[in-house]
Amino acid sequence: MCSRAASEIPFDRIQNVDIAQNVFQRALGIAEVRLETAGGGETEARLRYVSRPEATRIQEIVSERKRGEAERDPEEPDDALFELDSGELAVLGLTSANFNLFGLVVLLFVVLGTPVAAEQVSPRLAVLLFLGPALAAVALVVLWVLSGIQAVLRYYAFRLVRHEDELRYQRGLFQQYNGTIPLSKIQTLMIRENVIARAVGYGNLAIETAGYGPGQGNDDIESAIPIAKQARLFDLARTIEDFGEISFNRPPKRARIRYVGRYTIFVAVLVAALGGIHLQTGVLSDWYLGVVLWLLVPPAAHLKWVNLGYYCDENYVITRSGFWTRQTTVVPYYRVQTVSVSQTVFQRRRRLGTLVVDTASSGGFWGGNGIALDIDIEEASRLHETIHNRFQLSVRERRAGNLRSPQPGD
């Protein structure tokens, strides 16, 4: 009431038009329309009290105007790519564990679960934290259940369709959401499989666009497919980017030896810390039993190594990494921004390096860059040159194709 602002947004700057409805808005038949621009995922404008049919019409108009075409009949059917059924929704709930929070909970109860540390916090809390392992297990189960409930509510009735040159999705039980993903803005595809989902053959497909993770802002990336069988995920990914069969190259075995050394140092530091606590306080008389953790070092090093890989073909560079959440990243050459090779002091000792293929994505915690970790340094240099040359070639081919293509209005 005290101030009024007016803004003008060119159609070609609008990257996404998203529609959100909570329970009360659905009851009133209204929705909120969010106009997102390419400037880093900022919401440029919000239309908060729009009727649901009008919100759909606005989304359709912007989509057509961006292509310079006549308005399309919103009732015309789209090409359905994926619908989440009840069985997949149940699997999503069971496999949506947040391993980052799990690690924090375990660390909290391991550190504070010792009598000395607990007493420093609070005498009353000491009694509870003395049961640290049991409470940590309960907390992990509670977090697992809460993560599953959140995922089910978030992706209830999920549906993905192809609409002309963009993808459109809808999801949500209490907070319904309709969003768009322009195909022309897609930078990378990421197939993610956490350890639980991978054990039963499932994963999810995420899409990152230039400067924007649709529906979630800068700090996250939207799941194009929240859960599906691994083979189906790759088939769906190929409907977006036409890459072929993947045959990953693993890093050399000396990288695995490096991981054994790294984890051994970690165990040694931990045992030394426990021994220091014993000397200072007299507690933890069995501190030396911490060396038993070294038995986990060889399998941990192998699991890290076996889940690393890279692959290049004529049009794409594809990388894979991660054990707790394994991520396969597909980067088209024409989306590459920079290619770099780096070496740490420890990598130089074993003639290893890390290749990073950077795109114009929004980054965030997960990031959308392709990373080939701990590969042979000579191989990294060769890949650097190959990716650079194929990027230049793909850009020239696309420019030539655009010049030959008829333009609107011709």
Shape: globular
Q: Give the averaged pLDDT, no decimals.
A: 80
Could you estimate the helical fraction of the residues in percent? Answer: 40-55%
**Structural class assignment:** alpha+beta
Total beta-strand segments: 16
Strand content: 25-35%
Task: Summarize the helix and strand pattern as letters.
Answer: EHEEHEHHHHHEEEEHEEHHHEEEEHEEH
The oligomeric state of the chains shown is single chain
Protein name: PH domain-containing protein
Keywords: Membrane, Transmembrane, Transmembrane helix
Transmembrane segments: 99-118, 130-153, 260-281, 287-306
Domain YdbS-like PH: 3-61, 155-214, 305-387
Would you give an account of this structure?
- 42% of the residues lie in helices and 27% in strands.
- It is of the alpha+beta class and 410 residues long.
- The protein folds into 4 domains: 11-84 and 157-240, no CATH class; 87-151, no CATH class; 254-299; 308-404, PH-domain like (Roll).
- The strands form 3 sheets. It has a 7-stranded antiparallel β-sheet. It has a 6-stranded antiparallel β-sheet with strand order 10-9-8-13-12-11. A 3-stranded antiparallel β-sheet has the order 14-15-16.
- Helix 3 packs antiparallel against helix 7 (132-155), helix 4 packs antiparallel against helix 7 and helix 5 packs antiparallel against helix 6.
- The chain starts with 13 loop residues before the first strand and ends in a 6-residue tail after the last helix.
- Residues 116-121, 212-221 and 404-410 have low confidence and may be disordered.
- This is PH domain-containing protein.
